[in-house]
Amino acid sequence: MDFPTALVLNAIIAGLLLGGLYAAMSVGVSISFGMLDVVNIAHPGFIILGSYIAYIVNARLGFDPIAVGIVVSPLFFALGMALYRVYYLCFERRGQESLRGLAFFFGILFITEVALILVFGVDYRMVSAAYQDTTMRLGPVDFPMRLVVPFLVAMAMVIGVEIFLTRTFFGRAVLAVAQDSLALRLMGVDTLRVKEFAFALSIATAGMAGVLLVVIQPVQPAIGREYIGLVFAVCVLGGMGSIRGTLVGALILGLAESFTATFAGPSWAPAVSFGILLGTLAFKPSGLFGR
Predict the structure, then answer these.
(1) Which of 22, 105, 122, 168 lies 20 to 30 Å from 243 when distance is taken between CA atoms?
(2) 46 within 8 A of 202, measured Cβ to Cβ
(3) What is the pLDDT of residues 161-205, one digit of tens each?
(4) 126 dihedral zone (left: phi>0; alpha: psi -120 to 50; beta)
């Protein structure tokens, strides 16, 4: 097989694996922003917080970082419930959730970043796992386990969220509150409780995404800001509130970045990704799977 064909195949595989990470990082934004209309700009901050928790436990106790992520997910869920309760009492209940709510989440992002810098400094940190240095080869295509394992976990999480939202009563209540909150209240459903649960779920997915991120690459506190545009771009590209669209949009951006980095250089990758987003908004403003 000639070299260009092998290069293309490896770019495809790398793009799909990278897209899986982007899907895990963006599914929480699809819930909070796409379904609840909560512009949680601090979402990447919780991703990096998850990375550092995995790093601490892995460095001190040697536990597998993904196992750590599963164990601490309930803690992120509880944090999300508390955070939404504060957001609701201070802003949403008063009808001030637009600009002041955005400032609130920006403050949360800033506090999280500064706290991590004060504790850990600005050095890059990375976890250690048995599979990180392993690469499987199938013909001319490489499958690095440090990307494959997070991809499989990300797919399980995203598909699990999709099944929960479409197959369970509470999940359908989340979808209903996103479409018509007033009608749901008239049916006797506690919409505040539904929103609180959904927002907590979005924070729990952010913590798990942070674990997957630190398995793939080193992190430092300020790196979360690099993903603010990305997670919202994936959410809008896939269609507001569509988990399936989030997955497809993430894979598309992953492939676009991989091909651009391979054939034009890494510096062009973000420009191409956001160019795809702008093109989608120009021809289909609702996104790929938007209603």
Answers:
(1) 105
(2) no
(3) 999 998 888 888 887 877 767 776 767 677 888 899 999 999 999
(4) beta
The answer to the question of residue 289 being in a domain is no
Strands 135-138 and 141-144: antiparallel
Contacts of 151 (CB under 8 A, 6+ apart): 16, 17, 20, 21
CATH of the domain at 21: 1.10.3470
Model confidence at 1, in pLDDT bands (50, 70, 90)?
Answer: very low
**Tens-digit pLDDT profile for residues 15-61:** 999 999 999 999 999 999 888 888 899 999 999 999 999 999 999 99
- Residue 83 domain-assigned (yes or no): yes
- Number of domains forming the structure of the chain: 1
Domain that holds residue 206: 3-283
